[in-house]
Design goal:
The protein has 695 residues and is an alpha+beta fold. The chain contains 24 helices and 17 strands. It has 5 domains: 146 residues, Alpha-Beta Plaits (2-Layer Sandwich), CATH 3.30.70; 51 residues, no CATH class; 124 residues, no CATH class; 156 residues, no CATH class; 121 residues, Isoleucyl-tRNA Synthetase, Domain 1 (Orthogonal Bundle), CATH 1.10.730. A 5-stranded antiparallel beta sheet has the order 2-3-1-9-10. A 3-stranded antiparallel beta sheet has the order 4-6-5.
């Protein structure tokens, strides 16, 4: 017979970000538990609302099967004395495994025991482990509640546990399980007695709780879209995935309420209005069919009831709140636009960039300098780029960005346009912040790309220079990155790679470091530049290995080449990675790799000197030298790979017929010099010894 299990933990309202993460942890933990006890099951489903976490397991076995184990004991001459009696070791083995002396037997020079183990029931296993699984959940801001020492996201109020139609007795956080739970706070069904795991969802819905987050999300989309359609509007759900997730996990029974505000607030930039609605109030903005923002929005109320008076109060309350925020927005917008954006440049002198590294005005001047340098490298007219660089941080001194910090860049771009700057400049001011996260869109304009690289390189170098010596522990880690260094580095790399920018990033980093050191009398430690370089390379490998696009060992091997450095020419590195990846997948790579690695190993710890052609005596070494000389670093990587395949064939012939460690010292040294010359040719692409065969 197959069995069903249900566990629900009822709490006070939990932070919405914790809930989906907790669901994933619960599903994984119960799956691993059942597998560890060899218990078969059909499906694990996890449900969640702001007040509850629930696990339903279908198709469970009733328990483990009984098993007989054969246990190996001590060697015979240690287990029995010369008279055949059990020694203390033999007696200990019998006692440990719960068998009688006469149940032991001898085989292959050892004593053995057959032990029957009764399988545990599924009920017993679940009851013994449920509390441990729940209390091991991880999340931010866990704390103790009341007099208990137990830490959890919010106080646990009730535990429901059923095995089929019966209550499964267990205890979690001093709460004894039962079959009762609570409906929606406003529902007439305050207490609900769950009949069985199969009836859980239906009974909760009768209590105005939609426990399945997927169903709840679909309901939000469907009802909100219908409500918007009533006024001929649409909701851009594709742009609001994070908002949709948040609303899903802060409601148990979502109901749409249509609200509006005065059209006068539409005179401020759309981004201000939508940020107020989305980020601050969790509303869905409404748009006309042609994409124009309307003075209407939808809020999803966690409400049970149908009386118009209640909805009227909900509508009035939300409209009152959003109008107050929009009043701030329109006031700050009008104040800011009384003067041109450039007028705020001097105000940046009063805003600290970073302790010991001056103001945002100082940073702006460095961004201008680095932008000019990059323009010269790219042979680009710098006029619009330098103008965008000069204005890039001015909006940080505006009232609107001070109030709504997430609008930086967006407001700067709008203020630049209002101030009469051309489109290239206003776009550059906006896009220099791109990408906003690891996967978001990149700057498309040259101005945005160049100013963004200059800004981010300056930030990265500033952090490394102020954390030299004994302050290195303050550098970015997995949990701490206050200035967004990881994001900045990834943004730089993604921008250069996607834009195909032919710039030497290492030179830009060095220039930024020397400028900061000169400006603020910082001593540049010898290893700091190498540490910055290694940090960039490690982020690059991490970026390119995502989704298994490229193998990590190939990415690592291509950083160890004898040609251009990774940061000197990023496009060259990516091209080499693509070429080596194709080479690795080829049918001839195993033999190719063996020859290349053999050359590398033989020449390790030797000094590279040019081979003397006059000392080449055998046909194989002459042919190897000829083929190696024909390979040029300037050729395309695809052509180079084809030439290296030929070189590897010549290496194979060389090793078959030539003794490297010849008795004649001059011949021996010359052959090692030849192999060093060959290794250098292989190294143009990568260090093939770093590539793991058989992957």
């Amino acid at each position: 017979m197959r069995n069903n299990f249900l566990l629900e933990i009822l709490t006070e309202e939990m932070p919405y970000r914790f809930i989906p993460n907790a669901c994933a942890q619960l599903e994984l933990a119960f799956c691993e538990l059942l597998k560890s006890y060899n218990l078969a099951f059909e499906e694990i489903k996890v449900y969640a609302t702001p007040r509850r976490l629930a696990v339903a397991i279908d198709g469970l076995e009733a328990g483990q099967e009984d098993v007989e184990k054969t246990l190996k004991g001590p060697v015979l001459n240690m287990a029995r004395d010369p008279s055949g009696k059990l020694t203390p070791q033999g007696l200990g083995f019998a006692k440990k495994n719960g068998v009688l002396e006469n149940e032991l037997y001898e085989e292959d020079g050892y004593i053995w025991a057959k032990v029957k183990q009764s399988g545990k029931s599924t009920k017993e296993i679940l009851a013994q482990n449920a509390e441990s699984i729940v209390l091991k959940l991880q999340g931010p801001y866990f704390m103790r509640w009341g007099h208990s020492d137990i830490k959890f996201s919010r106080p646990i109020e009730n535990v429901l546990a059923l095995f089929n139609d019966d209550v499964l007795p267990l205890t979690i956080a001093a709460k004894t399980s039962g079959r009762s739970t609570l409906g929606h706070r406003f529902s007439k069904h305050k207490e609900i007695k769950i009949k069985s795991p199969e009836s859980y969802l239906k009974q909760l819905e009768e209590g105005n709780v939609i426990a399945d987050p997927k169903v709840r999300k679909a309901r939000i989309v469907e009802l909100a879209a219908k409500k918007a359609e009533e006024v001929g509007a649409v909701i851009k759900f594709e742009n609001y995935s994070e908002l949709l997730d948040e609303i899903t996990y802060i409601t148990e029974y979502p109901v749409p309420v249509l609200c509006d505000f005065d059209e006068k607030y539409l005179e401020i930039p759309d981004i201000v209005t939508t940020v107020v609605m989305i980020k601050h109030q969790r509303y869905f903005p409404l748009y006309s069919k042609d994409g124009k923002l309307l003075n209407k929005f939808i809020t999803m109320a966690n409400f049970v009831g149908e009386d118009e008076e209640s909805f009227k109060n909900i509508r009035a309350g939300n409209q009152r709140v959003v109008v107050a925020r929009l009043d701030d927005g329109i006031f700050f917008y009008r104040e800011d636009t009384k003067n041109k954006l450039e007028a705020k440049l001097e105000d940046l002198r009063g805003i600290t960039f970073q302790k010991g590294l001056g103001s945002l005005y100082d940073k702006t001047m460095r961004i201008v300098m680095l932008s000019k340098y990059i323009c010269e490298t790219l042979d680009k007219n710098p006029e619009d780029t330098l103008r965008a660089a000069l204005l890039s941080k001015c909006d940080l001194a505006s009232c609107l960005v001070f109030e709504f910090t997430e609008l930086q860049g967006f407001i700067g771009s709008d203020y630049a346009r209002v101030s009469g700057e051309n489109e290239n400049v206003s776009t550059g001011v906006l896009e220099h912040y791109y990408p906003l996260n690891a996967t978001s869109e990149l700057a498309k304009s040259a101005e945005g790309q160049i100013v963004g690289i200059a800004d981010k390189v300056d930030t990265v170098c500033a952090v490394f220079l102020t954390t030299q010596g004994d302050k290195k522990k303050k550098r970015p880690t997995g949990s701490q990155d206050p200035l967004g260094v990881r994001r900045a580095v990834l943004g730089i790399l993604r921008t250069i790679a996607s834009g195909g920018l032919e710039i030497n990033l290492l030179n830009i980093i060095e220039k930024a470091c020397h400028t900061l050191c000169s400006e603020f009398s910082i001593t540049l430690e010898p290893e700091t530049l190498d540490e910055i370089k290694e940090y960039f390379i490690s982020r690059l490998i991490s970026l390119l290995s995502q989704d298994s696009t490229y193998r990590a060992d190939v990415l690592e091997a291509c950083t160890k080449n004898t040609g251009k450095g990774v940061l000197e020419d990023l496009s060259d590195y990516i091209s080499r990675v693509q070429t080596v990846s194709a080479l690795v997948k080829g049918g001839n790579f195993t033999k190719f790799s063996e020859n290349a690695v053999r050359v590398i190993k033989i020449t390790n710890h030797t000094t590279a000197t040019p081979p003397d052609e006059a000392l080449l005596t055998t046909q194989e070494e002459k042919e190897l030298y000829r083929v190696a000389c024909s390979i040029k670093q300037s050729e395309s990587h695809q052509a180079l790979a084809a030439d290296l395949l030929g070189l590897a064939h010549s290496v194979d012939s060389f090793f078959e017929r030539t003794l490297v460690m010849d008795e004649d010292e001059n011949t021996r040294k010359n052959r090692i010099a030849l192999l060093n010359f060959v290794k250098e040719k292989f190294g143009i692409l990568c260090d093939f010894s770093k590539i793991v065969k058989g992957q």
